[in-house]
Amino acid sequence: MIATNPRRMLWAALLVLPNAATHAQIEIDENSVAEARRDFIDRVVAEHGFERGEVTEVLERATISQRVLELISRPAERVVPWYEYRDIFLNESRIEAGVRFWQDNAPVLAIMEENHGVDPAIIVATIGIETLFGQRMGGIPVLDALSTLAFAYPPRSAFFSGELESLLLLSREEGADVLEASGSYAGALGAGQFIPSSYRAYAVDGNGDGRRDLWNDWDDVLASVANYYAVHDWHPGGPVAVEATRPSDWSGPEPGGGLDLDATVGSLRALGYRFETDLPDDAPARVFAMERDEDSTEYWVGFNNFYVITRYNRSSKYALAAHQLSLAILSAYEASAESGQ
């Protein structure tokens, strides 16, 4: 059964571009939407034993959203240059909010570090980027978002059909009301912005109350973010990324656009990149090119923990912003502790 309890969920908003609404509309084919919806219902009824009438009723209440289609076609990580993207998150107000959040949750964060081996600074920075520590929860009905992307966005319909399926399963398993949920245009959930499949796979009960509440229970939120990083092979205390330079007469290959660590510390140095790390030459690494400003480029070497952050959000800009914000919050937190504030 799909849950219909009245508890209203709070969700986190991903970055919305100011000019996204003016982007050219994506045509919605109502016949294709109806066919895709019928196929989806047939599948989840057959595979998971949902009541056909109940699933049909839920999905008929979903609105196919032109706004969602506009937003998914222009995600900030893809269209905003690094120097603008960085400034969204690397600012004094977010750093100060991060310090306060860490101070308020220090005992739980210490337990998460002990249990999962994940540095508290990256947990805090992640939540700071995702939802400004729970302050910005978003307002797009998640059922609308996932139905739109599953049935009216062919480039990723298979992926989002899976997420819509996971949302229905999550509703059944956790007693969550999918008709009341609102949040990001991509269907991400809770203060840590887990997509439904990640919620089901990686969310944990942080305080032993028998529930996994990623909207209101910070023990669960912090434990779940820590667990996500740990499961994806976070190396405790390991480096994330360092800035690199290269000769002015560079003649080697330019960095590609992927995320996999397809080089090593030694191979990058052999190419001519200069950077500081204590990692051995055979440690996996990758170079990322970022727009320093309109006229110049900076280069960063990402290591294992950088790659792990990209499992949370598949963007090198996101990973570098999370890393830099974590360092800034850590520095301010330690300074505050030393001053007794």
Question: Could you please describe the fold and organization of this structure?
Answer:
The protein is an alpha+beta fold and 341 residues long. Helix content is 50%, strand content 7%. The protein has helices spanning 30-48, 52-60, 66-72, 76-79, 82-89, 92-104, 106-116, 120-131, 142-151, 157-174, 196-202, 218-231, 265-271, 304-312, 316-339; strands at residues 140-141, 182-183, 241-244, 263-264, 284-291, 297-302. The strands form 2 sheets. A 4-stranded antiparallel β-sheet has the order 3-6-5-4. A hairpin with a 5-residue loop joins strand 5 and strand 6.
> What is the strand content?
5-15%
The ordered string of helix (H) and strand (E) elements is HHHHHHHHEHHEHHEEHEEHH
- Rounded to the nearest angstrom, the radius of gyration is 21 Å
Question: Which class best fits the helix and strand makeup?
Answer: alpha+beta
In the CATH scheme, the class of the domain at 20-76 and 136-207 would be Mainly Alpha
**Percent of residues in helices:** 40-55%
Mean pLDDT: 90
CATH homolog superfamily of the domain at 20-76 and 136-207: Bacterial muramidase
Q: Report the sheet with the most strands, covering strand number, pairing sense and barrel closure.
A: 4 strands, antiparallel
Poorly predicted ranges = 4-23
User: Strand order of the main beta sheet, please?
Assistant: 3-6-5-4
Shape: globular
What is the CATH topology of the domain at 20-76 and 136-207?
A: Helicase, Ruva Protein, domain 3
**C-alpha termini separation:** 50 Å
- How many distinct beta strands? 6
Helical segment count: 15
